[in-house]
Amino acid sequence: MNIDQADPAELAVLRAAFDVDDGGESALGWEAVHAFEAEHGIVLPEPYRTFVAEMTDGSYSGPPEYGLLSVAELPDDWGDDEQERDLSKPFPLAEAWMWEEASDQSEDADELLEQVYNHGSVVLGTDGCAMNWHLIVTGPHRGHVWLISDVGAVPFGEQFGFTTAEPGFAGWVRHWAANKPWYDAA
Questions:
Q1: What sequence ranges are listed for the domain Knr4/Smi1-like (predicted)?
Q2: Rounded CA separation 145/104 (Å)
């Protein structure tokens, strides 16, 4: 997973999965990508960065279940729109956390939960029922995809033990395009 250079093979997988053939009309364009990055104090990880700049900035065809959101969009069921999201602050997790099962419901846990939702990620889309896919844009997990729901947060990729998929945005899309269940590890 190379998050600093766009791999032509990964870009080909993305083009095939989304069947983007509109001459780039639905793409954000490099100027808009650079403006988004400057506004938020981040650099989007590759190949997602090239994907939104050159291919498409969102898609109704998925993944996930309800389609891929625009880089600046939040799902309709997001909740508190007044909450400030700061993409430049590092995403706080490095391993799965099921807060629904956690015995520590302290103020520190509440603060960490707030950071999970609002720091260091763009929301890729939703599978409904507040199950949202995030691409981590800052912190140690930059470039990885996470499923964040109302009960916990789980990283996506074979090295985390829940799936056979390759990590990162391209691995996530490739897994979806192969019509595999998200979490298919035995």
A1: 31-148
A2: 26
